[in-house]
Amino acid sequence: MNKTIKSGVRELLFRMISKFEEKQQEKDVEFKQKQDCLRVVLNFLGNLKDVAGVDEIVKTIENLSNLEQKDRIRTQNQYLDDIASITGKKRPHKPTVSDLDSFDIDAIRNKINEFYIVRKQVPTLRTLLVELRESIGFNGCRETLRRLLLSNGYEFKKNKNERSLLIERYDISAWRHRFLRTMALKRREGKSIIYLDETYIHKNYKPKKSWQGPSTSGAIENVSIGKRYIIVHAGSEKGPVPNSLLVFSSKSKMADYHHDMNAVNFNKWLREKLIPNLNEPSVIVMDNASYHSIIVNKAPTSQNRKDDIREWLTLNNIPFEDYHTKAELLCFVKRNTPEPVYEADELLKENGHEVLRLPPYHCDLNAIELIWSLAKRKVASKNLGLAAAEFERIIKDSFESITSEEWKKMTDHVIHVENKYKERDRITENNLESFIINVGNSDSSDSYESFQIEVLDSDFDYGSE
């Protein structure tokens, strides 16, 4: 019994058949040429009837010609029969899954959510299939379930990290909106955008893969990561800021390299390496690392002594009474805390520059992050058995080898990322009004923002006792 072949296979067979037909046409031409040759031979032999044995030769040739003709016709007929069996009408088949309505689809979604939210488990096709067979009588196989999930918008892909959730927090999202608007405005004003940051690299940093062979071991990865080197640099679309590269070895064994970079070192780098080499007023883009964010006008906290809090209130012309408790004084501080003024920002501002701080968790908006990746690849490709002094030289050479065109490429990529954020957040460049977050009053008595204390002199008039 002939079986119906699926459309994809049938299409492949049709292509094979077309090739077969081309071959048949070639054979037809060849067969015709043979017939013409035989006809010429037979005509020649017909003129030699008086020669003994000619009649037998003629009969033999005619028999061979007839046999070849019959075999050719039989092959073509078999070929046509095969085509008829292959291209037969597709027969209906019984579906593997009964028709699912919207209720069943919702039940599948709810079951998946139940795994994540209630059971705190990651569902698999195997576990989900067992549950669906019990709950909605699903009678398909795993492959059917997989296709069903794909058709309803599910994907089996790499998990999102926490960053993708944090960047959508309302305050960080608002920060991003302000940042994107300001960047667009500064670019229209023709301001030079300078990106700066810090990173690190270990002495034994090597590529993860290398060409190896029977007699070549390739780059051997060291057991120890080696000494850590801290790198500070800055640049723009025009290239690196001249003489701004700083490389020094770490003295700390802490896992976090930020312990090697403090406010003193960072401000010294600003004064000696960055500011003297900026030829025009620029916008400095930096993140919010602790040593970038030393507050000059820091308000007192509960860790301060009561006298320190009183002194701060006096310096800021905020009235208070001697009988106010420390808790009350801190309430006054909270109500009157000014916007933070950062030491690094003031240093740059004094020299005609302004600082634009990146939103938290948005390193993809800093072009120098791409420069780190490029430079580290260059270092890794040359780091084979280098001494400490040579390794530091290789680091500097790798950064110096990065061309202005490569810097421009990295900054263009960041602009592309900015545009993607704008498109997603529906921000237009024409809307340059400041983004204001209005914190509404909460009905909940537990809300910290809405919890205010009205201090009455009569409540704490201890002096009258």
TrEMBL record:
Domain Tc1-like transposase DDE per the UniProt entry, residue ranges: 255-381
Pfam families cross-referenced by the UniProt entry: DDE_3
Example of a GO MF term: nucleic acid binding
Protein name: Tc1-like transposase DDE domain-containing protein
InterPro entries: RNaseH_sf, Tc1-like_DDE_dom
PANTHER family registered for this protein in UniProt: DUF4371 DOMAIN-CONTAINING PROTEIN, PROTEIN CBG22215
Protein species of origin: Spodoptera exigua (Beet armyworm)
Organism domain of life: Eukaryota
